[in-house]
Design a protein that fits this description.
15% strand, 156 residues, 5-stranded mixed beta sheet, Rossmann fold
């Protein structure tokens, strides 16, 4: 799991609990700065990682992350649709377009005089599941048809 521990939306403990329940060993690859990308991939390679979870943050948006994963033939699962377009095998996360629309709603309310403290906190209600078939082909993976049918988008 490649993650930025200082990012407020990251919960390593929950991911570790889920991995244990599935019988999967989870290796924590913490990144604090862009110059930490190569060392985390060296660690992943030394541990012979089977796949990588990339948790969305400012630092994990670096294009070198997908480039290095592709060089190591390491399947990546991420949260942002943009990561699938950049080479991640699959992504699952809140719909970006919906989030931006809700952001516009909040900005509108504040500009019209509402106090931000009075606005409700909302959780995402729509999630996008994107599969990148180019990445699957590069990894010699076949995505089962029943999985493809569940995707909200398939990148050919």
């Amino acid at each position: 799991m490649l993650w930025q521990p200082t990012h407020p939306d990251t919960d390593y403990v929950e991911t570790e609990v889920a991995a244990q329940a599935l019988g999967v060993e989870l290796l924590s690859l913490e990144i604090q700065a862009p110059d930490g990308i190569d060392p985390v991939f060296e660690t992943a390679s030394a541990w012979r990682a089977d796949a990588m979870i990339v948790v969305a943050s400012r630092l994990t948006q670096e294009p070198r992350i997908m480039e290095r994963a592709q060089q190591l033939r390491l399947p990546v699962v991420a949260q942002r649709t943009e990561d699938a377009e950049a080479g991640s095998l699959l992504t699952y996360g809140p719909g970006t377009a919906d989030s931006y629309r809700r952001l516009a709603y909040y900005v509108d309310r504040v500009l019209k005089g509402a106090s931000p403290a009075d606005l409700p906190v909302e959780q995402p209600t729509r999630f996008e599941f994107v599969i990148n078939l180019r990445a699957a082909q590069a990894l010699d993976l076949t995505i089962p048809q029943h999985v493809l049918l569940q995707a909200t988008e398939v990148i050919p």
